Amino acid sequence: MTDPIKIVAILTARPGKADALRDLLDSMLAPSRAEPGNLRYDLWTDDAEPGRFVLDELYENAGAVAAHRASDHFQTYLAAINDLAERSAFTLRPLGVA
Fold this sequence. Notes:
Layout (H helix, E strand, L loop, with lengths): L4 E9 L4 H16 L4 E8 L6 E8 L2 H9 L1 H13 E8 L6
Antiparallel strand pairs: 1-3, 1-4, 2-3
Helix pairs in contact: 1-3
């Protein structure tokens, strides 16, 4: 792993959409974890705000991120996510990671 990329996405369900958002995010776990180049794909929830979720993703390199974004399951996610949640995503490169 010479050029890892971490993506952190924060998704807050729109009113009445928390269950549908959770279902969509759950459907991404297995296929994303099975992708070559995926090192981590974890889903978290915020105890302080039900309906807020955090995706913690780690990829070997930019090629693995591109492959993830081209996948059928990611395209399904993209088609649905704006109706279900407000989101912010951050693409990060390591500076001092042990």
